[in-house]
Amino acid sequence: MGKMSTPERSWALYDWANSAYSIVVVTAIFPLYFKSAASNAGIAAHTSTAYWGYANSLATLLVSILAPLLGTIADFRGFKKRFFTFFASLGVIFTLMLSVVPNNQWLILLGCFVLTSIGFAGANIFYDAFLVDVTDKERMHRISANGYALGYIGSTIPFVISIAFIILAQQKIIPISVPVASQIAFAITALWWGLFTIPMLKNVEQKYYVDRVRHPVATSFKKLFLTLKNIKAYRALFLFLLAYFFYIDGVHTVITMSTAYGSDLGLDATTLLIVLFVTQIIAAPFSMLFGKLSDRFNEKRMIAVGILVYIFICIYAYFLESALDFWILAMLVGTSQGGVQALSRSYFAKLIPKESSNEFFGFYNIFGKFAAILGPVLVGATAQMTGNTSSGVFSLIILFVIGGILLLRVREDGEPVSTTTISS
């Protein structure tokens, strides 16, 4: 693979831009900031946790419901860039709002978070769909993997700067409070996201599209229903989506439950943040390695390798006893999480009709979002029944085995189906 072209590089750079949001706002800093703001307002810890869960669920539900329809509309010429710009701007603006809303206004903070989540997830639908426009079929896996690698590296820079501000504020080394330091972190994240989105806006254009019609919304509804009606014609594609639903649920659950699991092992918050940081660093080169190995073994086989690694992770987690074991587990996660996600995106992009990429990535988004439900419930229920967190993580093997079996049933030669063929 030669050097990336300007559109390829600009596209991959958006992963660098928006990944800071994932770690600073979704995972590490804002949840603690919101909990503190709610506590100061006299809201009980369990109640604020419930509100946090409701906010996440609301944002996920809204994006998941709208994704296929918005995607279908965006397949018309000129709409994809507009939709991407709208949702990315929504995310950036309301992330910036988190830095100026007073920290005693917990309800407004939560509302801003919902809007940032919608902006982030909505922009990702169209960002993923642009993969078919910026590169050819033979390079998709490498470009997708490079995007994830850049995302892992890019997310650590504002994260480290943000954590530095917070620690310096905690130690009274700088004359600001921890809440103000957190607000600075949100501002840094918003500016980082916005600044590195500019190359995407400037250099990436929609190459594949459906010609505009007089009533695009009504036509989009008809096109969406036609796709669902003729779902059998997309057998390889939807079989892959079903496999993706199961194994990506396992991947996301391992990521989202990792801090709680580490806490149960007795690791303090600082150690957990360091582990999270190191995992991000490891994930970057391994994402690129997965992309490179796909040149020889193809995406499907490398996704299967990643699934096998996760099965081993679940088994290893069952016997976890020490902090060292947790470090080893985290490093193993870092070797595969980016590769599995990157190659899933590029493999899916190869299966779909290019002129309907937004519509199909809308479905991809739905399967990915709703896949975040089953795994945590499985871990929680198993841990509660057995009284052992390790048993909960071990239970995720079920998801990886089902996902792996379904993946193996996807045709190796599954070519994208033309929407022209479907409609005829």
From TrEMBL:
<protein>
    <submittedName>
        <fullName>UMF1 family MFS transporter</fullName>
    </submittedName>
</protein>
<feature type="transmembrane region" description="Helical">
    <location>
        <begin position="236"/>
        <end position="257"/>
    </location>
</feature>
<feature type="transmembrane region" description="Helical">
    <location>
        <begin position="360"/>
        <end position="383"/>
    </location>
</feature>
<feature type="transmembrane region" description="Helical">
    <location>
        <begin position="326"/>
        <end position="348"/>
    </location>
</feature>
<keyword id="KW-0812">Transmembrane</keyword>
<keyword id="KW-0472">Membrane</keyword>
<feature type="transmembrane region" description="Helical">
    <location>
        <begin position="389"/>
        <end position="408"/>
    </location>
</feature>
<feature type="transmembrane region" description="Helical">
    <location>
        <begin position="54"/>
        <end position="76"/>
    </location>
</feature>
<dbReference type="InterPro" id="IPR050495">
    <property type="entry name" value="ATG22/LtaA_families"/>
</dbReference>
<feature type="transmembrane region" description="Helical">
    <location>
        <begin position="302"/>
        <end position="320"/>
    </location>
</feature>
<dbReference type="InterPro" id="IPR036259">
    <property type="entry name" value="MFS_trans_sf"/>
</dbReference>
<keyword id="KW-1133">Transmembrane helix</keyword>
<dbReference type="Pfam" id="PF11700">
    <property type="entry name" value="ATG22"/>
</dbReference>
<feature type="transmembrane region" description="Helical">
    <location>
        <begin position="180"/>
        <end position="198"/>
    </location>
</feature>
<dbReference type="InterPro" id="IPR024671">
    <property type="entry name" value="Atg22-like"/>
</dbReference>
<feature type="transmembrane region" description="Helical">
    <location>
        <begin position="148"/>
        <end position="168"/>
    </location>
</feature>
<dbReference type="InterPro" id="IPR020846">
    <property type="entry name" value="MFS_dom"/>
</dbReference>
<feature type="transmembrane region" description="Helical">
    <location>
        <begin position="269"/>
        <end position="290"/>
    </location>
</feature>
<feature type="transmembrane region" description="Helical">
    <location>
        <begin position="12"/>
        <end position="34"/>
    </location>
</feature>
<keyword id="KW-0813">Transport</keyword>
<feature type="transmembrane region" description="Helical">
    <location>
        <begin position="83"/>
        <end position="101"/>
    </location>
</feature>
<feature type="transmembrane region" description="Helical">
    <location>
        <begin position="107"/>
        <end position="127"/>
    </location>
</feature>
<feature type="domain" description="Major facilitator superfamily (MFS) profile">
    <location>
        <begin position="236"/>
        <end position="424"/>
    </location>
</feature>
